[in-house]
Amino acid sequence: MGFLRRVAGVSLRDRLLEENIITFVKNELKKIQKVLSPDYPECSESQREDDKVVDGKDEEQTRSSREAFLMITLDILRRMKQQELADRLQSSKRILTD
């Protein structure tokens, strides 16, 4: 019986981890899509304030995660031969990671 609980616990933990990763990726991808949109206006200070962590999470860890996601996205865009989009995204790095 203990084995089944352990397996179920791992499964639940894995599902929660996957859900959190997917949520993070979707949220970051939405920000990137906004930046890459042709009609994207420059982000105002108030918009950046809205994106800041408000629930007490470690801001440095969040910033580090965002930067890592941005680097992965840049790499994927370049592999897709989308250098112009990658350059535009790279130039907006401060907006996305602050």
Which properties best describe this structure?
single chain; DEATH-like_dom_sf; 98 residues
Describe this protein's structure.
InterPro entries: DEATH-like_dom_sf. Residues 45-61 have a biased composition (Basic and acidic residues). The protein is an all-alpha fold and 98 residues long. The protein has one domain (2-97). Helices cover 79% and strands 0% of the residues. It has 5 helices and no strands. It has helices at residues 2-36, 45-51, 59-79, 83-91, 93-97. Helix 3 (59-79) packs antiparallel against helix 4. The longest helix is centred in the first third of the chain and has 35 residues, at 2-36. The protein is elongated. It starts with a helix and ends with a helix. The model has no long low-confidence stretch (mean pLDDT 78).
Q: How can the largest sheet be summarized?
A: none
User: Treating each run of at least 4 consecutive H or I residues as one helix, how many helices?
Assistant: 5
Please tally the β strands and state the result: 0
Strand content: under 5%
Overall geometry: elongated
Write down the secondary-structure element order: HHHHH
Span between termini: 48 Å
- Radius of gyration, in Å, reads 17 Å
The helix/strand class is mainly alpha
Round the mean pLDDT to the nearest integer and report it: 78
Low-confidence stretches are none
What is the percent of helical residues?
over 70%
Biased composition (Basic and acidic residues): 45-61
Region (Disordered): 40-61
